[in-house]
């Protein structure tokens, strides 16, 4: 058996023959599969981590609601606030409104919350979008925040960077917010105006409509950049009281209570504690459950890419099989001579198994090396592709995250990819190894 590795390496040495070319193609096929799989899976893993970071850094870790309007929120609010490990708690009113800015209308989601304080205020301030310092525009560390995360005044608002950019909104601008509940009331009033039999009834109906269409005027005090495009392009923060007015809620009514803890990854533990603390009519959702569709979609795409790209390695395995079978028939006389000299079937089989193992090993190492280089220069390559072909391969609007092309390699992924490629190459060399081992020495030598 000890001569098997020697013969395997000898057969693989370049000899400018057709077999040598096929061997190189086989190695490149394996390397291509490993390279693509390692790069794509690293990008998907990094993308998932980027989404988690943006959600954890911006969204509440848990949300408590009752499936409708939550009345008398101060009672559960005080209980939750007293829990160990809870960092911040706020009731919230959340929903869609019509926003008017200088005649431009849009329909963002408002979040009415209590003004953040202390560490929570500093956390939200860290999410403010930044502009270059006029005195040193090239130094990103000196960039100035765009306003402040201040909603202490009921007539103030903090808008997402996506909204601000699309409508050219700046700090200090005035926004008009219309409640969606007014639309139904306006339609009913219009019907009554149309059905009025006298002029006095029409005038009264028109006055009612004017009162209903009186918007809430707020001043933009800050512009935030959460790193998640969906949030930045759709959310406007306002004072809780402002949102309550827009939705015609009493002061002790809201949609739910948002909770942040000292560790978002322990949200399930806090969920169990809150279930024990609060009455059964309250529903408690973790940040993972609230964004389940996003995480499920990323996981499904990642698994699909695993399956698709593994096919490339299987093709590489077939190339190896083809190479080994060709070598088997070219070396038929040598195999016959070895067996005539006393080589056992297992020893002959190991010659070809070692060939497959060596091809797989070299292919895996080359593929991993190219993957490391690609991931290291990924943003430079993405920028070059964008400039050359005019294609944004990682658009924030499509993939919902900012900050360049994400990537994260894990030891588990590298082991799965390398082991899978190695096994595919080894299995591919089994058939030619068995063919070589089954050759009869007399027939092999007679054919020559």
Outline the structure in words.
This protein has 448 residues and is of the alpha+beta class. The chain folds into two domains: 3-52 and 295-446, no CATH class; 62-290, no CATH class. It has helices at 3-12, 18-58, 74-81, 118-125, 161-167, 181-195, 199-212, 229-232, 240-246, 267-277, 287-290, 292-330, 332-340, 345-376, 378-389, 396-399, 411-428, 430-437, 441-446, and strands spanning 62-65, 70-71, 86-96, 98-101, 104-106, 109-113, 130-131, 144-145, 156-160, 174-178, 216-224, 235-239, 253-254, 256-261, 283-286. The strands form three sheets. The chain has an eleven-stranded mixed sheet, sandwiched between helices. A two-stranded antiparallel sheet has the order 2-13. Helix 1 (3-12) crosses helix 14 (345-376), helix 2 (18-58) runs antiparallel to helix 12 and helix 12 packs across helix 14 (345-376). The longest helix has 41 residues, at 18-58. The chain is elongated, with a radius of gyration of 33 Å. It starts with a helix and ends with a helix. The relative contact order is 0.19. The mean pLDDT is 82.
